[in-house]
Design brief:
Distance between the termini: 46 Å
Strand order of the largest sheet: 1-4-3-2
Radius of gyration: 24 Å
Low-confidence stretches: none
Number of helices: 2
Shape: elongated
Largest sheet: 4 strands, antiparallel
Structural class: alpha+beta
Mean pLDDT: 89
Order of helices and strands: HEEEEH
């Protein structure tokens, strides 16, 4: 999971079943912390709305309005969102200056 976010997906991500869909929760289906409240099988009253051969939605009528709770896709590609490499590169720039006094002290010590 971390590798996929660091470097991006190596090609499209597809469902396990050839005729299946990937269900991506929308903001309406997530908690305030951004965590899904559950998958499509845990929500009653959903209905399928296909807009394109590779795109569809699972909707639920809430307060008289049809609200999309899940985006359905046949495949997705995750772009790279590096979080570790920039930190390592930044630390590498400061490392020689931080280690120089320790190295000097170690070389002066009686061994």
């Amino acid at each position: 999971y971390a590798r996929m976010h660091e470097f991006g997906s190596n090609g499209p991500i597809t469902p396990k079943k050839a005729d299946g869909w990937l269900a991506i929760p929308t903001k309406a289906q997530k908690t305030g912390a951004g965590v899904s409240r559950g998958g499509p099988r845990t929500v009653e009253g959903l209905w399928f709305h296909k807009t394109h051969p590779d795109k569809a939605y699972l909707l639920k009528k809430i307060g008289g309005k049809n609200i999309a709770l899940f985006l359905l896709r046949k495949s997705v590609t995750v772009p790279a969102r590096p979080f570790l490499r920039p930190s390592i590169e930044e630390a590498a720039e400061n490392l020689p200056a931080a280690l120089a006094p320790l190295l000097a002290q170690a070389l002066k010590a009686d061994v």
